[in-house]
Specification:
The protein is mainly beta. Helices cover 5% and strands 49% of the residues.
Length: 315
């Protein structure tokens, strides 16, 4: 009963802040390989420390195209392995991310907490909260204005700082998972001085709804359909669908169709209980395909303190 009361407190905090204000967050094409990035409730579901290091290069061939690097780490604190009588447990994590596009750079540091409560012997509900800081930098000297002596734009660096708050819920089992998360809940004015003012917030709330199923198979191959719905304030809703194929918990391959426009191919190889490697290639939509060679992303995964020697994650 105490576990459910504690979980209820976290859920109430999530709902309170979701009615609050806002900010903005870059998307991640490899969320299927690292769902923790989009939902703090996903921290620490299994008995090991999960470290991921990633680099992404979008729109290859276009000058100033976005480049993103991140490191994430999450781990349970008091996980007890007991399939018949699973126990509630705490988890913590953190992410460090930098995103650069032309003269603009965004740096992000977040720390998260999650609480996992078994509802049945097979289904668990988790609630998570993430808090951190955002730093925005604009190299105005790289804007190449028509007038190089424009005093409004200037010729140095312009910096903005803002707090960051995200929250989420996650319902999961060996056969399915369903999560909802809300990002950038604090108000943050990141309009740089020379930009025109607007009634809209310069940072907007981001909403993510993610779900997947693991279908039974008589062979060593399991199939998982996946769907993600993304919504940013003042922007249209985006829907990504996909399917992954897992062979013998060693190799995963998949196909995604992002917002009915772009196609992505992904793969992940689980070499050992310690090491995994994931890769994603995105073929851009009709409006970009003639200008760019697509987007590439790679994720290196390390499962530290992995005493059960789990090779392929369940989730």
């Amino acid at each position: 009963m105490k576990s459910f009361n504690f979980l209820l407190t976290i859920i109430c905090l999530c709902c309170f802040y979701s009615i609050s204000k806002s900010q903005y967050k870059p998307s991640h094409s490899l969320s299927m390989l690292n769902n923790y990035l989009i939902n703090p409730a996903i921290a620490g579901p299994e008995p090991y420390m999960d470290l991921k290091i990633s680099g992404r290069n979008q729109w290859v061939g276009i000058d100033g195209s976005p480049v993103t690097y991140y490191v994430s780490l999450d781990t349970p604190l008091n996980f007890v392995e007991n399939d018949r009588n699973p126990q509630a447990h705490h988890a913590v994590g953190g992410t460090l991310l930098t995103d650069k596009a032309g003269p603009f750079r965004r740096n992000e540091l977040n720390l998260s907490y999650a609480y996992h409560v078994p509802i049945t012997s097979e289904i668990t509900l988790s609630a998570g909260l993430s808090i951190g800081a955002l730093h925005y930098n604009l190299k105005t000297a790289d804007l190449n204005p028509n007038d190089p002596n424009d005093m409004v734009i200037g010729s140095g660096n312009d910096n903005k700082f803002s707090p960051n708050l995200s929250t989420g819920l996650w319902l999961y089992s060996d056969r399915f998972q369903l999560g909802i998360s809300i990002h950038q809940l604090f108000i943050g004015d990141t309009n740089f001085g020379f930009l025109p003012s607007t009634n809209r917030r310069s940072q907007n709330i981001n909403y993510f709804l993610f779900g997947s199923l693991k279908l039974k198979s008589i062979t060593k191959v399991s199939i998982s359909p996946v769907v993600m719905i993304k919504k940013i304030d003042y922007s249209p809703m985006a829907i990504d669908i996909g399917v992954t194929f897992n062979y013998n918990n060693r190799v995963m391959a998949g196909l995604t169709y992002e917002n009915f426009d772009s196609v992505g191919l992904l793969g992940s190889f689980y070499f050992s209980p310690l090491l995994s490697l994931g890769y994603y290639y995105k073929v851009l939509g009709e409006g970009f395909v003639q200008y760019s060679r697509g987007s590439h992303e790679i994720v290196l995964g390390l499962k530290l303190k992995n005493k059960p020697n789990i090779v392929c994650p369940k989730f």
